[in-house]
Design brief:
Blueprint lengths: L13 H29 L21 H4 L7 E8 L2 E5 L2 H9 L1 H4 L8 H5 L7 E8 L2 E5 L2 H9 L1 H19 L2
Antiparallel strand pairs: 1-2, 3-4
Length: 173
């Protein structure tokens, strides 16, 4: 009977290991850089704007909150540009009202959640979680932040107004 030959692994090449490690680290660095760029792109606007489409407040009609009492997606047929963003509306009348008085219909703090702004942080509001207080539109990150705002709206608004200039400074490119 012949003795079994032992199979040996080929010798390890340190240069190949080093090249693999460098490649993996470069890949991780690129992923981290992309994440930072995406994060910055999402939080460098004074108005909450979709990074890919340029639509303010995700294409929801800011006038419809007042006229229809609900969040409604606007149409590409009725658009206007204001403050570096594209705003959509459900009809010509809403677009006309916005063009005549954008400061009346735009969400306060550019659509950022006022509870975050009160803490000095820009947290994008969700256009489907909203509230009109004092004839002004506020958007919130979640129903929980909206509830917290409702419980002490005057205090949160005062704090957010004092923090807003600093938050805007951080958002400005």
């Amino acid at each position: 009977m012949m003795a079994m030959q032992q199979k040996r692994k080929p010798p390890v090449d340190p240069a190949k290991i080093l090249a693999s490690l460098v490649g993996a680290m470069a890949g991780l660095s690129i992923c981290a850089w992309i994440s930072v760029v995406q994060l910055r792109a999402a939080t460098t606007e004074r108005i909450v704007t979709d990074y890919h489409t340029g639509l303010a407040i995700s294409g929801f009609d800011p006038v419809a909150y007042f006229t229809n009492g609900k969040a409604m997606l606007g149409s590409g047929e009725f658009e206007t540009n204001h403050a570096g963003a594209t705003w959509r509306f459900i009809n010509e009348g809403n677009r006309g009202a916005f063009v005549a008085s954008p400061d009346v219909y735009m969400p306060v703090f550019g659509g950022y959640d006022p509870t975050g702004v009160a803490r000095g942080v820009a947290v994008a509001g969700n256009p489907e979680v909203w509230l009109i207080v004092g004839e002004r539109l506020y958007l919130f990150r979640s129903p929980e932040t909206r509830n917290a705002f409702e419980a002490r709206s005057a205090e949160v608004i005062t704090s957010a107004q004092s923090q807003w200039p600093e938050v805007v400074r951080k958002l400005a490119p």
